């Protein structure tokens, strides 16, 4: 039995992680979990999965749920996230919480020797140098949950990292892949939320449409696999069947494929290095799919991807700024305060106005994160 | 330094193996080799690669070359092939000889503890049960050279065989993939030899056009990876970019891709489990390729594939009959004695008329091979 700590239980990755736990009741058990503000869903999950420790965002919610579930321990707030992350019984942390709040629990779990299944983008984007140093020092497995990084990780099994020539991330192109920049002028929030291949949360769906999601993935891939940015390519692949690839120096390309289903990479992270059956997954039938399409990525069409490469290559606190500016800009777009293309403008403006700090400490990253959010909000 | 015994040095796989040895002179050395009747090419190879032992098909050729290269040992005939295969200095046998003559040298090399890089189809098709038992008993690595089996083998690294749900072999469709059966009535030898993706020998190019090549590969894959025929699929993929795939029981599909180039799987067999750079290989650029196509395999259109599945599933000496009948039929087609579609008819007739022997011994396999050739020749 593998005991799991799950941060972000009610989100898209969180609920699908619970599906996997449910699918394999003799293999996995939910030991500890965190929930944001969705008390109703928290109640259902607690009743079904019987975790021993639950962290709520708000103290009030923790206290009221405690009355309903007196045998279960409750905690709350950012410190509570770390309590869940290092919960003694758990051997693996699935970090599916959104935002920079996910960073510190990951670091605590690494120091506590837990295996990390990482879905929280900010962990590597803002503090890749700190996280990877901690991973190496504590020799804990860092397992990707994102479909692209999982594909690369699966393709890397049985191989030597030194033989990698190139990582090739595939990008569906998001909701607006067939539109020109001119056609993006007046797109609505509803248009943007209509992703062709993946059913995901609002923030990540917008990030797919701006291609910032791929940009953040490039930065994550850089840290997770230790590959320089020059050797990370992105190719448009609208079917999202090939989830990503590695090109080795003998020219051989290893790829992982499948019908888009986040439960596959989630389960792989939980079962690694083994696999377990996933009977409810829709099997890939390439003859039925018929065609797979690929096209070059246009960095002028998808400016956020260019910003991400530039911020990643420059390093320091620029990726933190990129990420924080993007979060606030996407939030503003979702609230109807700015247009779709203004997301890019806000990010560009913010990156340009930032004085990067090299090799930032955790405190410096946090401060830059807070300052960036203030700055972008001041522009709205 | 890895010392190599190479059977079939002047063929398509043989010369490309020599290219790889030449590309990595500090890694590989040709210790022993065999040549059929191509004395001129043998002379060039000997002068360039300085093998210590050379086997010629004919005694006369061996004797005349001995006069030119007095420091080199020469041998000849089928026994000579086995001498090359077990040559003391060699740690790996690359068996790229064509036909059933390749079987015994493989078995001798396995008993001598050599690593086997297998390009000779007959070894597994006719005697899979004997060969795999010897491989297990002697615990030698059996490495595929065929691009499809190499793709599967590469996809299997870091995985457990027990987690395999399905092998998916890709098939280009060969020279006639876009023709109906009616359009095959009067095709010429020249038409058939014009393969769209791969530059190979005449026999294998015809086998691609009839789909017998894929059929033999299915039987090989069955033995090499221990997967039942029901779990081996063939999908048409005209670009030959995805070289084959494994579907695991979590629905994840691992694939190996590349621009068609036999040197890649040959080199992988020589470097396994490592890889070495192959600078002259053309890199895969999927954006440039643009599209990959897949279609279901039609067993009525490609009857040889159906024969192969049936012979493989029935087992015993039927795969030997399939292979021998095919060899004689293809030879007859290449000589203009029969039409393209008569290849299928001859094979079907021969399979129907054979009384299969289950779990045949090596002697029985040999006898059936000889008898089948006589029988098919009697029909011409």
Mean pLDDT of chain A: 96
At CATH level 3, the topology of the domain at 2-140 in chain A is Rossmann fold
What's the end-to-end separation of chain A, in Å?
50 Å
Poorly predicted regions of chain A: none
Radius of gyration of chain A: 20 Å
Oligomer: homodimer
* Widest sheet: strand ordering of chain A: 4-3-2-1-5-6-7
Structural class of chain A, by secondary structure, is alpha/beta
3D shape of chain A? globular
Biggest interface pair, residues each? A-B, 53 and 53 residues
CATH architecture of the domain at 2-140 in chain A: 3-Layer(aba) Sandwich
SS element count, helices of chain A: 16
Helix content of chain A: 40-55%
User: In CATH, what is the class of the domain at 2-140 in chain A?
Assistant: Alpha Beta
Question: How would you name the CATH homologous superfamily of the domain at 2-140 in chain A?
Answer: NAD(P)-binding Rossmann-like Domain
Q: Report strand % of chain A.
A: 15-25%
The H-and-E topology of chain A, N to C, reads as: EHEHEHEHEHEHEHEHHHEEEHHEEHHHH
Largest sheet of chain A: 7 strands, parallel
Counting DSSP E segments of at least 2 residues, the number of strands of chain A comes to 13
Describe this structure as you would to a colleague.
2 copies of one chain form a homodimer. Chain A contains 16 helices and 13 strands. In chain A, α14 (318-334) packs antiparallel against α15. Chain A has helices at 12-23, 39-49, 59-68, 77-85, 103-111, 121-138, 147-156, 189-192, 202-210, 212-225, 263-271, 286-289, 303-314, 318-334, 340-352, 362-379, and strands at 2-7, 28-35, 53-56, 73-76, 92-95, 115-118, 142-144, 164-171, 232-236, 242-248, 253-257, 291-293, 295-296. Chain A has a 7-stranded parallel beta sheet with strand order 4-3-2-1-5-6-7, sandwiched between helices. Among the domains of chain A are: 2-140, NAD(P)-binding Rossmann-like Domain (Rossmann fold, 3-Layer(aba) Sandwich), CATH 3.40.50; 315-380, RNA polymerase sigma factor, region 2, helix turn helix motif (Rna Polymerase Sigma Factor, Chain: A, Orthogonal Bundle), CATH 1.10.1740. Helix content of chain A is 47%, strand content 17%. With 380 residues, chain A is α/β, with parallel strands linked by helices. In chain A, β6, α6 (121-138) and β7 form a beta-alpha-beta unit. Chain A starts with a strand and ends with a helix. Chains A and B meet through α7, β10, β11, α11 and α12 of A and α7, β10, β11, α11 and α12 of B.
């Amino acid at each position: 039995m593998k005991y799991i700590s799950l941060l972000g239980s009610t989100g898209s990755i969180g609920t699908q992680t619970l599906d996997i736990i449910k699918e394999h009741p003799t293999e996995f058990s939910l030991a500890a979990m965190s929930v944001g503000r969705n008390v109703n869903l928290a109640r259902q999950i607690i009743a079904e999965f019987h975790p021993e420790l639950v962290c709520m965002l708000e103290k009030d919610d923790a206290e009221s749920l405690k009355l309903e579930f007196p045998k279960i321990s409750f905690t709350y707030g950012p410190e509570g996230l770390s309590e869940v992350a290092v919960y003694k019984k758990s051997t693996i942390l699935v970090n599916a919480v959104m935002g920079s709040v996910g960073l510190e629990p990951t670091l605590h779990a690494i120091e506590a020797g837990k295996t990390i299944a990482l879905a929280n983008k900010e962990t590597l984007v803002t503090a890749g140098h700190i996280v990877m140093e901690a991973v190496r020092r504590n020799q804990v497995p860092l397992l990707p949950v994102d479909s692209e990084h999982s594909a690369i990780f699966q393709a890397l099994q049985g191989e030597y990292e030194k033989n990698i020539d190139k990582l090739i991330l595939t990008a569906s192109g998001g909701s607006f892949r067939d539109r020109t920049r001119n056609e993006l002028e007046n797109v609505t929030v509803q248009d943007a939320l209509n992703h062709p291949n993946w059913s995901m949360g609002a923030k990540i769906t917008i990030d797919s449409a701006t291609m910032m999601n791929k940009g953040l993935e490039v930065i994550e891939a850089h840290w997770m696999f230790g590959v320089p940015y020059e050797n990370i390519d992105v190719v448009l692949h609208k079917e999202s069947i090939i989830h990503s690839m590695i090109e080795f120096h003998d020219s051989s390309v290893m790829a992982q494929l499948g019908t888009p289903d986040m439960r596959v990479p989630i389960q792989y992270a939980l079962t690694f290095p083994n696999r377990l059956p996933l009977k409810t997954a829709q099997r890939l039938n390439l003859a039925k799919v018929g065609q797979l399409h690929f096209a070059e990525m246009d960095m002028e069409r998808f400016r956020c991807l260019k910003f991400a490469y530039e911020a990643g290559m420059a390093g320091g606190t620029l990726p933190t700024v990129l990420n924080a500016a993007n979060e606030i800009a996407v939030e503003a777009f979702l609230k109807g305060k700015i247009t779709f293309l203004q997301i890019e403008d806000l990010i560009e403006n913010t990156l340009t106005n930032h004085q990067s700090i090299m090799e930032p400490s955790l405190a410096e990253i946090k401060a830059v994160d807070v300052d960036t959010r203030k700055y972008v909000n001041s522009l709205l």
